[in-house]
């Protein structure tokens, strides 16, 4: 499995990374806030900040992502459990998942990670904010790997796509009730777990080029919901 290449960082004006003493602490926070709001920063300052962000901040994020990844591969119950089951299903020993094909890199979309059968797992360092979020993302992607190996998932088939997304969100811990309470409050407590899984599955299927629109994605998710939500393999049960 080859590593996903990193895009070139545009630098039309031959900018240099700002010295640490000029970009640390309060100054970094001020410029970050200005960049996000568009206030108090001219075009040249924005270009300089974007360049600094790509060259100074993101490499540190990738380093932290690698540290989190290595910790999870050693100590996380959900990650080590899924890794063991993935290994059992991997027929080509050259494609066994390990640190060389579970990659931390910068992503240009809003996803926390991704899986490609020939490339491995990508963890989006610039989207992952904590060790525990990485655990959920990595477990999610490992469920996709497991489904690919065990069920020969065809993502051009929307039902296949919906089913593996339902299972990945359900089994990864991303939709645990405590997380949902922090996001949406205490209302509709009994439905939070299922609502989160459905929401995430519909969003993912909607982005599939084979899907016409959100209405079709919702229809497909509902069609496979019962069987896929009740399939907890390789776990015996799901803790919410």
In short:
The protein contains 9 helices and 3 strands, in the order H-H-H-H-E-E-E-H-H-H-H-H.
Shape: globular
Find the structural class using helix and strand composition.
Answer: mainly alpha
Could you give the count of β-strands?
3
As a percent range, the share of helical residues equals 55-70%
Largest sheet: 3 strands, mixed
Give a structural overview.
With 240 residues, the chain is mainly α. The chain has a domain at 153-240. It is built from nine helices and three strands. A hairpin with a 3-residue loop joins β2 (113-116) and β3. The radius of gyration is 20 Å and the shape is globular. The two termini are 34 Å apart. Residues 1-25 have low confidence and may be disordered.
Draw up the topology in text:
Elements: H1 20-23, H2 25-37, H3 43-75, H4 77-89, E1 102-105, E2 113-116, E3 120-124, H5 131-151, H6 158-172, H7 177-184, H8 192-206, H9 214-229
Parallel strand pairs: 1-3
Antiparallel strand pairs: 2-3
Helix pairs in contact: 3-4, 3-5, 4-5, 5-6, 6-8, 6-9, 8-9
Give keywords:
240 residues, 9 helices, 3 strands, 5% strand, disordered N terminus
């Amino acid at each position: 499995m080859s590593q996903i290449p990193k895009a070139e960082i545009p630098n039309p004006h031959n900018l240099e990374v700002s010295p640490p003493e000029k970009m640390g602490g309060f100054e970094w926070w001020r410029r970050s806030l200005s960049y996000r709001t568009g206030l108090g920063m001219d075009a040249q300052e924005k270009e300089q900040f974007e360049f600094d962000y790509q060259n100074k901040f993101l490499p540190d994020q990738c380093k932290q992502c690698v540290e989190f990844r290595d910790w999870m591969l050693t100590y996380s119950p959900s990650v080590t459990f899924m890794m063991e089951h993935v290994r059992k299903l991997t027929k080509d020993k050259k494609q066994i998942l390990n640190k060389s094909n579970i990659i931390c890199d910068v992503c240009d979309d809003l996803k926390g990670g991704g899986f490609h059968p020939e490339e491995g797992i990508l963890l989006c360092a610039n989207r992952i904010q904590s060790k525990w979020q990485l655990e959920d993302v990595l477990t999610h992607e490992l469920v996709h790997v497991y489904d690919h190996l065990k069920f020969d998932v065809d993502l051009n088939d929307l039902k296949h796509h919906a089913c593996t997304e339902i299972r990945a969100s359900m089994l990864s811990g991303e939709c645990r009730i405590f997380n949902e309470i922090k996001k949406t409050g205490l209302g509709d407590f009994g439905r939070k777990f299922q609502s989160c899984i459905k929401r995430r599955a519909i969003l993912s299927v909607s982005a599939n080029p084979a899907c016409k629109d959100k209405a079709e994605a919702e229809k497909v998710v509902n069609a496979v919901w019962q069987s896929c939500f009740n399939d907890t393999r390789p776990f015996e049960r799901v803790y919410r």
